[in-house]
Amino acid sequence: MTEKVGTALGQLEAGFGLELSAEQKHQVRVYIEKLRKWNAHVNLTAIERVEEHLRLNFFEAFWAGREFLEEGTRLADVGAGAGFPGLAMKIYRASLQVTLIEPNYKKAVFLKEAARELELSVEVFIGKGEVFARWDDVDVVTFRALRPSREVLRRLVGTGVRLLLFEGQEGLRDDRIRLVREARVPLSEQRWVRLVEVVG
What we know:
Blueprint: H1 2-16, H2 22-39, H3 50-68, E1 74-78, H4 86-92, E2 97-102, H5 105-118, E3 123-126, E4 140-143, H6 150-156, E5 162-167, E6 177-184, E7 192-198
Parallel strand pairs: 1-2, 1-4, 2-3, 4-5
Antiparallel strand pairs: 5-7, 6-7
């Protein structure tokens, strides 16, 4: 397993044009092992194919963090699940101020434990995005596992918070959002990351 991870990390660094430090690589290995142990009890993510897991869950987040987020960005990840992309982004950009929003209690406990073991300072909010009240403390909110609800969009009007969407080629169509920037994910034909803002 360790050898597979090491080989895949090298290939994906080249494919995404990223360079991870020894500490970041160590954190990825610790994270994967934590996921493997917890998956026996809590359905977090499929990790059977190491390279695909690293590409979709870790490197997409690393790359998007580099391409779309500035140092010190206050980031909220709605529906954080197993921590992708929010916790993975924190590995790549330590200066991010990350809040992981997750309504499932067991998954939220995993996020807290994983962050502690990875020595990453993040906040975990147990609840849905619709009841999160501190949008004034957020610059960018990510949506990967789900789409932003009408209620979340309504709450974001006038806050200046931008949405970072992990999507297929056909993106979210809603007259309340405006595209700011988009880029196709490396090593993929169909996956895109889009930065949008809520206009009303």
